[in-house]
Amino acid sequence: MVAEYFVRQWNGILVSASSWAEAWIFDGLTAYLSIQLANQLMPLSGYNQTRLLDLNLWVKQEDSMAHAVALKGLPTNKQQESLRVSKLCLLFNMINSVIGLKVMETGLKAFWLKYANKTATGMQLWTELQDAARRAHLLPRGIDLNHVMDSWLNQQGYPLLVVNRNYEDNTVTITQQRYTAVTLPGNPCWWIPITYMTQSDRTPHQEWLSCDDAAPQLSAITLKNISRPDEWVLINVNGSNLQRTLYDLKNWAKLNQILSTATEQIPPINRAHLVDDALNLAWQGMLPYSVAMGILGYLSNETNHYVWQVAIHNLEKLHTIMQTTTGYRIFRQLEKNAGKLEKKFLRTKENSSLLPSPDIQMYTFIPIIYRLACHFQLAACVKDAAERFNAAVLDPSKEIPDGLRETVYCMAVRYGMELEWLLLRDKYNVTETISERRILLRAMACSVDHWALEKLLQWSFDRGKVSKMLTIDLLSAVAHNSVGFILVKKYLYNHIDDIKRMYDNDGILEILQSFVNVISTWEDLEDFKDFVQENLPRISNYSITNFFEAATAKVDWRQYRYYDLLKAIREFTIAYLG
């Protein structure tokens, strides 16, 4: 927040947008520069990579919807406004990857000096950045930054790069298409900087994939003799582009092999994107789950928090669906075996005494492994959580480390008795800080007792118990509980009139989102559609369509790819045990 106010002295106050229609460009630049400034203040933290990765995961999820809105489109709710700023922040990171931070700073200084105490347009900003890049010989003459940015600002979504290697003539052909959950008419394209490296040449090289408006279907590039047929090729080095990458199966196999045998040859941020792409492409049916399981298999060698951050994000997405199916027992084997979770947990347990730590790698990695191990019912983790909880109850001076506290509380409530829930309730009643109250509410929502979850739902709209800003967190936590889903559904349906009186449309959408995110059956989806059409006729069609689309994607996955995942897990487990 402080970094953002500091940046706005130049970007927004010294130079402001020429119109409200372009103010969001300045907001996106402010968001990006704030991340970079915060990283400079904490140079060893890796804050910029962590924050940009978080944004990348969220934007790629939301912007893959068929009804996503172009950046220059008019947002109709707060989520679209947030998405627009976040996506533009990632596009500034793409520009930075092409021209470098120093040249970008030079261009920005020239822009602020030229338009000081004036207004400016987005085109004028792109021109100053382009001129600085030209002077530094970092932007080819055939590349016009205004055209590049127009291809990203004027259309919704983001590209899927399809990488096909011809192992006989030693060429790599890259084509592009929009990444969406459904097939859409049209053939959009983007100007994309293609940064690649190979097994024998790990120095990043760059080419441009063009976008010909007159013939977008011809938007392709062929790279010749960049690697030997027995080597891997990696696209989007350092993950600076907003894209997904689909390789041919042979190249996936080569990447999988190097991840398993020489992990550090692939940069950490690219390992994170490989895991994310493999699981999401398998989710869409574009990649066999057997390939995705192979990529997950290397996690036993992985200690970087970027990668585990992505892995747990995707595994929990699957977990939300799988916990309500008969295949849940098989799914848990994947989670335990994929990264040799028990060994990693025991190492994490030994290092947990070092928390809190200024080292973001340790500060993030230890809680991720602990959370993964406990929530997927690793016996050693459940036992350790109970011991930590009991020790803290008997001796309050024995504080549970930051990062582990929510997981420890959750396990104590889930596998304990009524007493553990009541102890957290009493602690909640005397706690004033929002962050600690959030932790306690989420932990109490781990209960498998109906009375406890119904009590929390009663609290959710009682401003004497739960503040408005914590209501969404609480409802989401209860809904993600396999026992709580039906209770949240019943409560929302019975209290929709009260909710409409208390919240505006954006607030109602956020509340319903906590429920929609857990829907995975046609029966629940059709029932929810009927409920919305009957009770919320004034909510925008775009927002409701997005709700239905996200839920439909989960329902389709359960119907068409659920068994593919189970089969791949069985094969993976047999290979692991063998």
UniProtKB/TrEMBL annotation:
Quote the Pfam families the UniProt record gives: ERAP1_C (PF11838), Peptidase_M1 (PF01433)
Q: Name one GO cellular component term.
A: extracellular space
Q: Which Gene3D superfamilies match?
A: 1.25.50.20, 2.60.40.1910, Neutral Protease Domain 2
InterPro entries on file: ERAP1-like_C_dom, Peptidase_M1_aminopeptidases, Peptidase_M1_dom, Peptidase_M4/M1_CTD_sf
Domain named Peptidase M1 membrane alanine aminopeptidase: residues? 6-152
- Could you state a single Gene Ontology molecular function term? zinc ion binding
**Record-annotated ERAP1-like C-terminal domain positions:** 232-537
Q: Which residues form a coiled coil?
A: none
Entry similarity comment: Belongs to the peptidase M1 family.
> What protein does this entry describe?
ERAP1-like C-terminal domain-containing protein
Organism whose genome encodes this protein: Drosophila willistoni (Fruit fly)
Its taxonomic path starts at:
Eukaryota, Metazoa, Ecdysozoa, Arthropoda, Hexapoda
